[in-house]
């Protein structure tokens, strides 16, 4: 999936946010600023540090994962952003508005209009049907019942729960309940989706399925998503970028590649060690079947259609014997389709990076351009590696 | 051995307070008394207007609808027995007292319970008062009721309400406090205000517990209404009281059985009411 990180102002900007629990929490902030550790502060003042000096930005359309073990402050940090927990110090800017300065009423309006949240334990209302649960946020907004029903049905369709409208949550499996949770959040069409360990309560198989669906869904709806998890595999698979937390502080922010290849501290390194199957896995294990290819004689419209269908911006060109010729970009195809060219022959680029099937994945990270073509000695196209599948494979390999 | 500490005049203070209230506010309490008495009379007259067998069928039908077939059969046979024993009139007046006392207790108890659940301050004040109301021997309430409301059914209802209201308050409060935190958080995350949380989340989820409280209130009302016969409430309690004074164990037991039947019928119906909401 492509990163739509725009260069404009960030959607969410978290500036030096602290959360200290206890009496007179400001004392704790001061001690943190003086460089005292979490345990020392606890001993000295009975104050519990939740979040320690967190700063980061999230772009529009980005899926940012906040990862850490339990007690690392990740859920607290998330709740500081929509102020379900009041931050002790610092600022949270959303579209330039300082959330921490809003009055209760303004905050309610913002939550109503901009935020959707999905919870670890689903938090569905047991006395309501699936449809009524999905309508909840819209009902809070005061939307007329016919309209909110329509929107809720759309949201249920989006998460694949058509036909379950009149069931009650307890009749549904965990995975389906969380789909309702997701639909409830999506129904209000929020700018920002907060997902607090949304898949942690699901069994591994369902979990992986939900992750895939979230990615597919995100490709379509392009929300700004803050996703909390304690699971590195999940973080690597889902995140455009990952924020790693320890003891309430952020220890590293980076893309999954950064985290895997350049862990900045021993802590992150230890995390990553277990996943470093990159040194073991080969290109063959992570490649996809190259089912989506075009031939030089194909028209630009065909190429565009295939790219659109699979959601890629580059498509590989092969000859009748499946030998790799090059690639065509969506931009070029679009350009020549307007000038009326009948074939792709003139816009084929030859710069496709290729590797052999037994190349170790670790070496693939050096490649900046995706997709990578996997070929044999005779230049036959065997498969294709895209960024998502590379990281996905790493993540899944790690959980085996 | 004697202590020099003077006796603390709790009793005298209370008597003075009651005297003061009676003297200055009796016109209000007497007014209330009159209104409530009219209500009771109207309810009793309304129910006595129909021949007993129609009401028995209505009760059985209601039981069927609310609590199922077994409860319906019980109501049918039970009330038929009461009719047969010639206790129909007293049973109806007892039922009227219970209904009115319960309505008042619930109407006052639910809001207090909700406030106590939401505001810790209200909770801190309410709970000790409830302890007091529940543990004070029920007979004691009968005494001040008389100067306020005079002898008769209204005094009975007054003391019954005081005695029967605590479970309604307590269980309403408990039910609302027991609403899971994560559900409240979810409601908050969608921007729900206090009223929306209360009506869309807390009260519906607390309903089974609230119904259990109402059930308790009804049961306590019934037991108190019998005791209140001593200050002139009529009905089955009055029959029991008469039987005691005249030493008629047979009549006493018959009236007692009437109370048991009424209690069981009301209990079955209201118990199922709470469970039904859940499913």
Describe this structure in words.
The complex is a heterodimer of chains A (400) and B (279). Chain A is α/β, with parallel strands linked by helices. Chain A is built from 16 helices and 16 strands. In chain A, 39% of the residues lie in helices and 21% in strands. In chain A, the strands form 4 sheets. A 6-stranded mixed β-sheet of chain A has the order 6-7-8-3-9-10, with helices on both faces. In chain A, strands 2-1-4-5 form a 4-stranded antiparallel β-sheet, sandwiched between helices. In chain A, strands 11-12-13 form a 3-stranded mixed β-sheet. Chain A is globular. The N terminus of chain A is likely disordered. Chain B has 279 residues and is mostly helical. Chain B has a single domain, classed as Orthogonal Bundle (MetI-like fold). Chain B starts with 9 loop residues before the first helix and ends with a helix. Chains A and B meet through helix 4, strand 6 and helix 5 of A and helix 8 and helix 9 of B.
How is this fold's topology laid out?
The complex is a heterodimer of chains A (400) and B (279).
Chain A lengths: L11 E10 L4 H8 L4 H8 L2 E11 L4 E5 L6 H8 L7 E6 L2 E2 L5 H11 E4 L11 H12 L3 H14 L15 H14 L4 E5 L7 H18 L2 E6 L2 H7 L2 E6 L2 E6 L1 H6 L4 H8 L9 H4 L6 E2 L5 H11 L3 E5 L5 E6 H10 L14 E2 L5 H4 L7 E4 L5 E5 L1 H13 L1
Helix pairs in contact in A: 5-6, 5-7, 6-7, 9-16, 13-14
Chain B lengths: L9 H40 L2 H16 L1 H16 L3 H31 L1 H16 L2 H12 L3 H25 L3 H9 L4 H34 L8 H11 L2 H30 L1
Helix content of chain B: over 70%
Overall geometric form of chain B? globular
CATH class call of the largest domain in chain A: Alpha Beta
Radius of gyration of chain A: 24 Å
Task: Determine the CATH topology of the largest domain in chain A.
Answer: Rossmann fold
Low-confidence stretches of chain B: none
> Taking all residues together, what is the mean pLDDT of chain B?
89
The number of E-state strands of chain B comes to: 0
CATH superfamily of the largest domain in chain A: P-loop containing nucleotide triphosphate hydrolases
The rough form of chain A would be described as: globular
CATH superfamily of chain B: MetI-like
Low-confidence stretches of chain A: 1-6
- Contiguous helical run count of chain B: 11
CATH-defined architecture of the largest domain in chain A: 3-Layer(aba) Sandwich
**Number of structurally distinct domains of chain B:** 1
Spell the H/E element sequence of chain B: HHHHHHHHHHH
Cα-to-Cα separation, first versus last residue of chain A: 24 Å
Per DSSP, the total helix count of chain A is 16
CATH topology grouping of chain B: MetI-like fold
Tell me the count of domains of chain A.
2
């Amino acid at each position: 999936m492509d990163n739509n990180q725009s260069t404009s102002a960030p959607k969410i900007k978290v500036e030096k946010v602290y959360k200290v629990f206890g009496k007179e929490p400001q004392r704790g902030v001061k001690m943190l600023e003086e460089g005292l550790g979490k345990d020392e502060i606890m001993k000295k003042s009975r104050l519990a540090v939740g979040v320690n000096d967190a700063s980061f930005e999230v772009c529009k359309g980005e899926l940012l994962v906040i990862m850490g073990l339990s007690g690392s402050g990740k859920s607290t940090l998330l709740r500081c952003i929509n102020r379900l927990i009041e931050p002790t110090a610092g600022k949270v800017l959303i579209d330039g508005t300082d959330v921490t300065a809003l009055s209760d009423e303004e905050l309610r309006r913002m939550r109503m209009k901009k935020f959707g949240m999905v919870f670890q334990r689903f938090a569905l209302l047991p006395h309501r049907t699936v449809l009524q649960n999905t309508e909840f946020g819209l009902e809070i907004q005061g939307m007329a019942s016919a309209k909110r029903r329509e929107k809720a049905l759309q949201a249920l369709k989006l998460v694949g729960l058509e036909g379950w409208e009149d069931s009650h949550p307890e009749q549904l499996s965990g995975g389906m309940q969380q789909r309702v949770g997701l639909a409830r959040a999506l129904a209000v069409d929020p700018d920002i989706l907060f997902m607090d360990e949304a898949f942690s309560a699901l069994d591994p198989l369902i979990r992986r399925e939900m992750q895939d669906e979230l990615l597919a869904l995100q490709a379509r709806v392009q929300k700004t998503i803050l996703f909390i998890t304690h699971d590195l595999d999940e973080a690597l698979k889902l995140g455009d970028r990952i924020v790693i937390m320890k003891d309430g502080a952020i220890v590293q922010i980076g893309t999954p590649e950064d985290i895997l290849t350049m862990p900045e501290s021993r802590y992150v390194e230890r995390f990553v060690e277990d996943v470093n199957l990159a040194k073991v896995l080969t290109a063959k294990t992570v490649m996809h079947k190259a089912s989506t290819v075009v031939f030089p004689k194909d028209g630009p419209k065909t190429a565009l259609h295939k790219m659109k269908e699979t959601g890629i911006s580059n498509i590989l060109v092969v000859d009748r014997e499946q030998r790799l010729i090059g690639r065509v970009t969506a931009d070029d195809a679009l350009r020549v389709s307007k000038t009326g060219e009948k074939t792709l022959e003139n816009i084929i680029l030859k710069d496709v990076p290729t590797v052999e099937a037994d190349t170790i994945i670790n070496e693939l990270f050096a490649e900046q351009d995706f997709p990578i073509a996997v070929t044999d000695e005779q230049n036959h196209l065997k498969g294709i590696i895209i960024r998502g599948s590379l990281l996905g494979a790493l993540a899944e390999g790690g959980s085996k | 051995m004697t202590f020099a500490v003077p006796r603390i005049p709790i009793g005298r203070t209370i008597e003075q307070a009651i005297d003061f209230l009676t003297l200055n506010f009796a016109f209000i309490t007497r007014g209330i008394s009159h209104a409530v008495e009219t209500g009771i009379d109207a309810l009793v007259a309304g129910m006595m207007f129909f021949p007993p067998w129609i009401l028995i069928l209505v009760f059985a039908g209601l039981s069927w609808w609310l609590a199922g077939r077994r409860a319906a059969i019980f109501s049918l046979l039970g009330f038929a027995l009461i009719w047969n024993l010639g206790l129909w009139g007293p049973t109806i007046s007892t039922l009227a007292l219970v209904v009115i006392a319960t309505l008042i207790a619930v109407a006052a108890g639910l809001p207090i319970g909700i406030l106590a659940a939401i505001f810790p301050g209200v909770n801190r004040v309410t709970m000790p008062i409830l302890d007091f109301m529940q543990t004070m021997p029920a007979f004691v309430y009968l005494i001040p009721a008389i100067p306020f409301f005079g002898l008769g059914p209204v005094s009975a209802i007054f003391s019954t309400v005081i005695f029967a209201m605590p479970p309604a308050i307590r269980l309403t409060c408990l039910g609302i406090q027991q609403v899971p935190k994560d559900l409240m958080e979810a409601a908050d995350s969608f921007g729900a205000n206090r009223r929306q949380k209360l009506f869309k989340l807390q009260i519906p989820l607390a309903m089974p517990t609230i119904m259990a409280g109402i059930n308790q209130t009804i049961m306590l009302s019934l037991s108190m209404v019998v005791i209140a016969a001593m200050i002139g409430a009529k009905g089955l309690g009055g029959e029991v009281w008469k039987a005691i004074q005249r030493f008629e164990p047979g009549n006493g037991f018959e009236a007692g059985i009437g109370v048991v039947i009424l209690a069981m019928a009301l209990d079955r119906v209201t118990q199922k009411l709470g469970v039904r909401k859940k499913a």
